[in-house]
Amino acid sequence: MNFTLDTKLKDIMAANPKTVDVMQDMGLHCLGCPFSINETLQNAAQMHNLDAGELLEKINSVEQGEMSAQAAANAQPVGAILQADKQTYAIAPHIPAGVATPEILRKIADVAEKYNAPAIKVTSAQRIAIVGLKPEDIPKAWEDLGMDPGYAIGLCVRSVKVCPGSTFCKRGLQETLGIGMELDKRYHGMAMPSKFKIGVAGCPNKCTDSANVDLGLMGTSKGYHLYVGGNGGVKPRQGNLLLENLQKDQLIPVIDAVVEYYKKTAKQNERLGRLIDRIGLENLREHANRALNV
Fold first, then answer.
1. Which of 78, 59, 61 is nearest to 20 (CA)?
2. Dihedrals phi, psi of 52, to nearest 5 degrees
3. How confident is the model at residue 154 (pLDDT cuts 50, 70, 90)?
4. Distance (Å, rounded) from C-alpha 19 to C-alpha 1?
């Protein structure tokens, strides 16, 4: 089988497991990760600053066979992220909207203690990461947790951050937890042209960085403002105000329209903000407005 740059890593490994040895030799060490294996070979080359043509040529030249024992040992455990010491891993169970029960907290603490994790870290994506696990303990840790992993890496919707909103916060002008849970259920882990982050805030304080993520909601006294195109990173970008004072029943249709437009229009690895910089905001606004009139 001849692979192309559009072939997904998981399909390459399934067709010829021996290609794992070559990919690891070239620097793709995350082949056990459930997020990265859904990326294409082109994605993987870009993410790891590799020559895509050279990577493709080497993979297509591998004779059919099984991966070596060393490659199997080096493969990243499922649902884990390699840490700075290059020996241990972190796992981050998914906690929708950052709302945890005492049972969840006890379960995470019990697993961390059972497998001698040196740290438990609350992340910026409203998850609780168990840090410093040995690779052989990770499958057992996930089994004990009985929880899904959070999509911390990959070209997908990585996080939906949600503030307490009017349910708990005295400054909250609009409800956030219900809509945040719905957005998380609808979008978390969805494949995208690039990484994609969502923030839901119940007031103009924007505690969840609503104007600095790919798609953000901000509560006002009259409804919700919708921001698009924000991002951090080396070249940070402030989000654009797309629509104002949306009502709660309008949010899902409009956000669906924004996501649809982005998936159809963006280039590979192009954040929503860079797409807006390239072609402007008006077409996206027009597309979102049409969803209000259906």
1. 59
2. -60, -40
3. confident
4. 12
What integer pLDDT is reported at residue 265 of this predicted model?
Answer: 97
Residue partners of 190: CB distance under 8 A and separation at least 6: 156, 157, 196, 259
- Model confidence over 214-241: pLDDT tens digits? 999 999 999 999 999 999 988 999 999 9
Are 91 and 120 found together in one domain? yes
Residue that terminates a domain, selected from 145, 180, 201: 145
Pair (229, 272) in one structural domain: yes
Question: How many domains, the chain?
Answer: 3
- Looking only at Cα atoms, what is the longest distance across the chain? 64
Task: Kindly state whether residues 140 and 209 are assigned to the same domain.
Answer: no
Per residue in 75-129, pLDDT tens? 677 788 888 888 899 999 999 999 999 999 999 999 999 999 999 999 999 999 9
**Same domain, residue pair 185 and 282:** yes
Torsion, Cα 182 233 126 174, to 10 degrees, reads -50
Asked if residue 152 belongs to a domain, the reply is: no
Do 274 and 183 share a domain, yes or no? yes
